[in-house]
Amino acid sequence: MQITGLAKHIHRRKVGIVITLILVLALALRMYGINWDQGHGFHPDERSIYMQSDCMYLLLTETPGYESCPLLKDFPDTEAGIPSIKTFFDENRSPLNPHWFPLGSIIIYLLVFLRYVLEPFTNLSAFDMRFVGRSLSALADVGSIFLLFSIGRRIFNLRIGLLAAFLMSIAVIHVQHSHFYRPETFIVLFVLASYYFMLNITERDRLRDWLLLGIFTGLTFATKVSVLPLLVPLFTTFMFSIFGSARGPSLLTSSNRAFRIFKYGLAGAIIAISVFLILTPYALIDLQKFMADTTWEASIAREAGKMPYTIQYIGTIPFLYELTQTTVWALGIPLGITVWCGLLYAVFRTVTRKSGWKGDLLLLAWIIPSFVLVAGFFEVKFLRYMFPIVPFLILLGSRGLIDLVNKTASISRSTLTGRFTRQPLLAFRKYAFVFSIGIVVLIISTSLLYALGFMKIYSRSHPAIAASQWINQNLPPGTNIATDNHWDEGIPDLHQYDTDQIYIYNGESPKDILMIANRLANAQYLIFYSNRTYGSIARVPDRYPIRANYYNKLFSGDLGYQLDKSFTSYPSILGIMWKNDTFKRASLPPPKELNSDNGTAITLNLGYSDENVTNYDHPTVLLFRNAETLSHIELFKTITTVNPINGSTILDFNNDLMLSNKDLA
Question: Which residues contact 339 (CB under 8 A, 6 or more apart)?
Fold first, then answer.
């Protein structure tokens, strides 16, 4: 007995050391390069969170300068200072009402609270809070890794749990999102915590598990209300509890037990609703604004092109887009293929009711409804919409790999029988196990290389900052620079230059196109922060014919502009670079002068990447020089000319209702 106990103790110590090393690696990857934007706030949602929390903090503390807080301008009845109970419940007067509900209020309140704690020790600005917010995001993701390990060990076994934890620790989508302060990492943390207590409920009939499940469910919805698919695994858990364990046989329980479970479930639901309302009180107090923001965000997601930043999703193929982007960019191709195969394997095991199928069903109850909602009902397909299901996919992929190894090991150890005495089955029996080990090693090594290569983007200056530095060092003050970054981020620190914005999303009236022509004629340089404008408009010429023609003419050199510099930061390691293509999907010719950015032996062009992958921390910045200095009339005619051979135009120059001679002049 003593020997057995010692062996178990040593085993636990080894497991503890391994999972600790995984968590340390994960934290290092997530904290490295945390100041990637140097305070410029290139992630628009993250920037909004910092500004909202800063405004709320200034109002609550009545810090000098709070009078200029944007919240006061939009809601002049807001009262500064800690609100009284009466003021707290007045949506128009309370400084705790963010009046902004696209994301859960809890992420604003958390920053405000931590600033209260830290302010006595240091003087913090709104964007200084990025260090706090991103650290919290990184810690949340590391906590999720530990929870995934715990869940994998309980549903499957220890090796699967450890493999899933390691693969999640190096998953690029998780490393990248941990560098942003947004809800996604917290959603995953709370969903996984909810799953942990779902497992407790299916194994043990205890009220406290229902109450703890209620707490984490409430936290999940308070972080972002778009997690409605979580109701499916919650219902599945309830049914397992009524009819039997998720692991054991399904036996109809007695009416007394069913009634007790119903009471427990009701108590958990009450706790969940209470937590949600405590952490997001103005979802109820300011219900009209909360509903308006929620329905507006849902409508944006449902219809591509409703907002300028969603035009790139017009015409994308449902399911295929999500599959491709997740496989290629979120995880890397080997791991990406593995997780989707793991999903299919789990579906097969559930349908055929293989041993442990109820555990698979509980995982699928979150993955499939979430995936169908995002891929099937949303035309807008930000890759972050897939983020909450990625850990579960990794877990199923890990189970598939371990099962593959176990099965091939069993075949290799099996006694020769009739079916294994023939060639080439003998060869298969001999090498199957080695082959399966090779697959696992390949997936782990390529995923690790992809993660380490991706970290290189945080070791360099952000492309927009690099572009700003180059401009300030090489162009004289007063240089006219046209910026084609409408509804996009900008190049920082161009104060000494004469900058003109091209409002590309305004429309295609003659005056709008003339504005573009004027900007181009007056500018000495033209700069793009990213591919958002040309990558979206140029790929739907049927909807935006003139503006699409403008980009085709620009990139082919017909407008007299030549690419002078490009600033990129592609993932790279060991002489291999992963490059995203910003031109092919938009049917644009790459500028002839585009440098290859090659200090690498091998360049892998992996095609188009979703904006969530590149445009925050490593966009492709392009700087064009006005080489031919065409007049605005020449530029206007070139932009509106479809076929230069026969002179056919998109605009009718002879129609005074479209463009008068005075306007043309």
Answer: 326, 331, 390, 393, 394, 396, 397
Dihedral sign (CA 178, 181, 187, 190): positive
Of 566, 556, 563, 617, the closest CA to residue 587 belongs to 556
Answer yes or no: are the C-beta atoms of 107 and 181 closer than 8 Å: yes
Is 251 a residue whose pLDDT tops 50?
A: no
- Give the per-residue pLDDT at 653: 44
Q: First-to-last CA distance in the chain?
A: 98
List, as own/partner pairs, every contact residues 363-370 make where C-beta atoms lie below 8 angstroms and the sequence separation is at least 24, other chains included. 363/155, 363/392, 363/395, 363/396, 365/232, 365/233, 365/235, 365/236, 366/191, 366/195, 366/229, 366/230, 366/232, 366/233, 366/392, 367/343, 367/392, 367/393, 367/396, 369/229, 369/232, 370/229
Region 457-483: what's the mean pLDDT?
97
Residue 340 DSSP SS3: helix
Distance CA 405, CA 79 (A): 64
**Rounded Cα distance, 501 and 519, in Å:** 8
Q: Which pLDDT score, from 0 to 100, does residue 409 have?
A: 87
CB-CB contact of 178 with 401 (8 Å): no
The residues, ordered by sequence, that sit 6+ positions from 661 with a Cβ below 8 Å of its Cβ are none
CB 75 within 8 A of CB 289: no
Between residues 651 and 207, the one the model is more confident about: 207
Q: Give residue 545's pLDDT.
A: 94
Q: Listing from the earlier edge strand, what are the strands of the sheet with 602-605?
A: 572-573, 576-579, 602-605
CB 251 within 8 A of CB 243: yes
What is the widest separation between alpha-carbon atoms in the chain? 100
- The arithmetic mean of pLDDT across residues 588-602, rounded, is 72
Please give the Cα distance from 342 to 330 (Å, whole number).
Answer: 16
Residue 425 has a pLDDT of: 60
pLDDT confidence band for 297 (50 / 70 / 90): very high
Which contacts of 19-24 are long-range, i.e. CB under 8 A and separated by 24 or more positions?
19/146, 19/149, 19/162, 19/165, 22/145, 22/149, 22/162, 22/165, 22/166, 22/169, 23/142, 23/145, 23/146, 23/165, 23/169
Alpha-carbon distance of 449 to 573, in angstroms, equals 7
* CA–CA dist 24, 15 (Å, integer): 14
Distance CA 161, CA 23 (A): 13
DSSP state of 544: S
pLDDT in tens, 534-563: 999 999 999 999 999 999 999 999 999 999
pTM: predicted TM-score of the whole model, two decimal places: 0.92
Give the SS3 label for residue 487. coil
* Closest CA relative to residue 144, chosen from 158, 130, 165, 161: 165
**Whose CA is closest to 554, among 486, 490, 484?**
484
Tokens 């109809």 belong to which residue?
Answer: 252
Residue 536 CA to residue 539 CA, distance in Å, equals 6
pLDDT digits (tens, 9 = 90+) for 216-233: 999 999 999 999 999 999
pLDDT tens, position by position, 605-624: 999 999 999 999 999 999 99
pLDDT at 663: 59
Under 8 Å between Cβ of 39 and 128 = yes
**What is the C-alpha to C-alpha distance for residues 319 and 378, in angstroms, rounded to an integer?**
10
Do 157 and 402 touch, CB atoms closer than 8 A? yes
CB contact at 8 A, 215 and 275: yes
Q: pLDDT value at position 192?
A: 98
